[in-house]
Structures are given as structure tokens and as C-alpha cells.
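Reopening this one. Same input as before:
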Amino acid sequence: MKRSASKQPQYKILTIDPWLKPYYSDIALRMQRHADTRRALLGDKGDLSSFANGYLYYGIARTDDGWVYREWAPGADEMHLIGDFNDWNRESHPMTRLENGNWEIVLPGEDALMHGQRIKVQVTKNGEKFDRIPAYIRRVVRDPETNEFYGQVWAPNRPFRWTDGGYGKRKLSPLFIYESHVGMAQEDESVGTYREFADRILDRIQEAGYNTIQLMAIMEHPYYASFGYQVTNFFAASSWYGNPEDLKYLINTAHEMGMFVLLDVVHSHASKNTNEGLNRFDGTDDQYFIAQDHPAWDTKLFNYGKYEVIHFLLSNLKFWLQEYHFDGFRFDGVTSMIYHDHGLGTDFMSYDRYFSLNTNVEAITYLQLANELIHAVNPFAVTIAEDMSGMPGMCLPIRYGGIGFDYRLSMGVPDFWIKTLKESDENWDMRKMWHELTTRRPQEKNIGYSESHDQALVGDKTLIFRMADAEMYTGMNKDYHSITMDRAIALHKMIRFITLVLAGEGYLNFMGNEFGHPEWIDFPREGNGWSYKYARRQWSLCDNEMLKYAWLRDFDRAMLKFARKYRVLSKRGAVNLWVDQERKLLAFCKGDIIYLFNFHPTESPTNFFLPTHPLGAGDYRAVFSSDETAFGGNGNISEDYVYTAKDVPGHGVGFEVYIPSRTAVAFKHV
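Same output, byte for byte:
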């Protein structure tokens, strides 16, 4: 009898994208590593959610009759707890070494530690003594006189009272994301607070039509100007903006308003700081990190193959979900994580770039486990990958052979717009525009955006500033017109509209960019005299009805209202109807809407034949236009006029339409 050969497992990703079939062994390795690592961590019957409870075991916590502090520090020779509670006595409170590199100290009595006391741990390694902040600390404070950072016992007598009863029980789709930085959200030249954001900014976001807030710079970071991307204390909510209860108040308020709140989580690297960070916590170089630092960021890189590091990072994710009720995460720096060269200088023009010895398979396994955990803790949570490489399967279910994210950011789109704006208008490539806005991985969802915080940073320019430049300082009154300003206003609207319609299944905007916030972001630093002038949002500009910022504000609101009404982001399969390179025209159908864009600077065809064959003959009306006078347009498109599409010999089904230059129109079959 012949022995039947064992059947190879089949992965749906190979059916979704047949170009991956030559890389079957790489996908199989991806899945085998996930299964093996999962089994090694959990055994045969364990579950990820229970495994990721490190934040309940480590750190400082109350017990029935006192307190306990535990730490994982396998390289330490001795550890002593020091702080306000013992007048910083370095010998009185030694910790006990347990198994597997763990340390513990039990402090009897409910007053042995008190809420608000400062605390550190003294580590001894090879005779050298140095202070560290506990790795699982939930609150860090800075001494205003010495600038030294301390851990702080955070255990209020009354726990925060959540009133967001629907948390974790509802799905939100599509996502209209408002990328936000709490500290720079206020108009004052200072650092804004969690409560100011909740009380002053949430209403603005809701009125603007966004349903999801993506909070940057929440994980503790000593250097304010790092934009939150040099994290030292992974379980501590940033003290720049207030205390943990204040952040909970912000999130609770947003939930009561029906909005999601996402955390911009940084697991791609960590600050090199030793006194307040994880670097050399136990006196060794390899406790949490690999030997190499990030060549561009000068930061430490996690060892994703080390089970204790996986435990730390997964526990961190569950902590933010459970303790703060975040609705999910935007994972920063995913491209940097999944390639040993961090994607620096790699073109990713071939599938070979995704599957090679350059691929960090340990990081991919970690990201699979992270997504599995997040969706186990909260099935409605959202995960977004900041990946510019286009790694296949990034946003496919793990069981398909994917990595498990819900969305990836359409990072090539902002780059496309920057490159396009550097060209003269007559040289804009309509075919390339269609390609860049519509080409993405099959069955993988994207978050489309024309610009984010990256484009607003000092050294770069926002789209409106690229187009208007110095004239923004003198030309934003509504009664002022010039070739430069009229172009900037028209294209700002068109770029955002076509990006929303084509570039993804969700949409993102950085706070203030929707109304064309002027200038750049520059955090206080020595080079600018420690000024907060460019680290704030000037909301009064869009509140001033005499200024063009109000036009852009109203356009963005109307655009999102249009997208919700016609479920634009839920529709799949945009159909290209017409590309006219000479006249800079682009027409397409998506769902039950026909879109027509005229990017030409001067030509306004009066009888352009607009094909409608995907929707058929019949009557059509314009239901949205960038040319409305309420948005600073000329009002040349009437929403009352009825266009009759019919079969025209030599043309097919469609109708003739007047399309002004630099105008976008959406038509609906009526």
C-alpha cells in the first residue's frame, strides 16, 4: 500500500493574490512561526488574553494588606526600592530574587506606600549602583527644578468612574479619523491638557464630521519635541498633559459622544535614555533590545524573538485597552519593524523584497500575535499599520496567511501629492493620479489621506502652504483674489475630495489641516528660543467668517457629510470612465455616484461627454461640487439642473456637461 503524501496547508492569501504562489514557502514559514511561538508562549490550552496580563503582576500594586512591587531584571545582582516612602534610604528595602529573572518586595500595611509618592528602584550590577524607574510604572513626573524624572505611585482612593457603557460593544465603520496631538491642540502658546482637549476640542471634531480620534504622543516621552516617538515609559500616560484620570476623562467623554479613540502606539523602537527608560534597565544591553540601534532614529530596537519582550509588549497593548478603554491602535513604524534594514532606501518594486533574509520574521510573528490579542480583548477594536512597503497580507486575517491588521495607511498618496505639486499644472499626470489613488493590495483595506502630521512638520510644508506660500499671510481674506490664492483654494478642495473618494476605505486628517492651517509645526527647542508659537492650532482662523479658512472648513464638513450620506468609503471597485491627459480630466464611477474632476488651470469644457454606462441611461443631478459659493467657488454647477443620459452613437451612454476648470462634481442617478 502506498503511503499518501501529507497534504500541504493551503492559505487563502495565495488565492487572493496569485502572484504570491511562488512564495508559498515564505507564507508557510510565516504561519509556522506564528503557531510555534504561540504554542511556546501558551502551551496547548492557554489563551493570549490571559498571557498578556503582565501589567497585573509586575509593577506596583495594592494587596489585601499592603503593597507589592515586582520587576523582571534578569541581569541585576541586587535591587532596592527607594522613594519618598523611606526617605530615599538605599538599603532599607531590598528586593528578593525569584525565578526566571523576577524580583519582588512585599510591603505590609496599607500606608506603606501612598498615592502620589515618588519612587525609583536602585539596581546593582557588578558593583555599580544606578537608579531606574520601574518598567511597568503608570505615572512619571518631572522635578521642575532639577528636570529629573521619577516614578509616581498612582493609586487613587476612588477609581475612575467610567460611563461609556458601550465600550467594546460596537463597531464603527467607516472611520473618519482626526489625528490629534493633545499638547498642541490649544491656541495658547503653551502645552494643552487632556481636560482642555476634552472640553474644548472634542466638540470641534464632532462638528467637523469625524468619528474617530487618533491620539499621538500619549506614551510617556521626556522630550516634548520628539512628537511622542521616543518613548521611555510604556505603561505611563504622558504627564505633559495631566494625570491618568484626566486621560480617562478625555476618552470617556469621546465615547459618550459616540467617537472612537485610537492610540498611536510605538512598539517599533524606544528611547536610548537609561535613567528613565528601558535601556540597560538591569545593567545589560540585551534585556529588551538587540545590539544594533536604529541607524536613522538613534533609538533602541526591541528583540521580538525574546519571549519576555513579547510578553512585555503584548501586556502593554492589553493594558491600554483595559485600563484606558482605547478602541484600538495605529502601529507606528511597522516598515521599520519588519525589515532588518528598516526599509531605508529599499524600493519594494518586486515581491522578492518582501520575502528574503532582510525580512524580520520575528517582528512579523509579534505583529500577528499583537493583532490576535487586540481582537480577542475587544472584537471591535481597530488596528492600523503604518507600513509604506506594501507587505502582502498586512491587512488580511491571520488564518488567511496574513498579519491581521484591519487597515494600512495609504502612505504613498501624500508622497504622490507632494511630487505632483512640484510639477507645473500642465504637466500633472492624470493616469498616474488614477494609478496612485486606486492601486492597493487586493481585499486589504486602507486609510486614505492627502497629508498627516508628517507633512506639517518643520522642514516640510502642508499642501496649502506649498501652493500659497507667503501669500497665506496676506491673501486669506475672502475678498482677496489672485492667481496663486485662487489656485491654492481650489486644489486644496479637489485634492482632499479625490483622496477621500479613491484612496481607501477610511479617511484621515491631521488636526487643523482640514481648514488649511498655515505654516508648520515646530516644537519648542533651543533653535527657536523654546517658543510654542508653532506648536499650537489657531482655531480662531477658521472661526473668522471673513477669512478663507472658513470656506475650507465648510468644504471639509460638507465633504464628510456627502461621504456618509452616500456611503462612499463602503463602496468597492471604482471604474475608470475617462482620462484626458491634455485637458486634465478624470471621470470615474464608484458605487452609485459618477465623479468628474477637471484639474486644468484654465480650460472649462462646455460640452464634455460624461460616460455613465456603469449606471445606465436616465436622469442625473449634481449632488456635490467643489465650486459651490459656500466653499469659495463660483457657483457654476447647479444641483437643480437635470442631466439626461442616453445612448449616443459613437459615444455610448452618457450626457454632455459643463465642467469648470479646477472643479470636482459628483453626479447621482435620480
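So the earlier flakiness isn't reproducible anymore. For the record, The domain at 59-152 is CATH 2.60.40.10 (Immunoglobulin-like).
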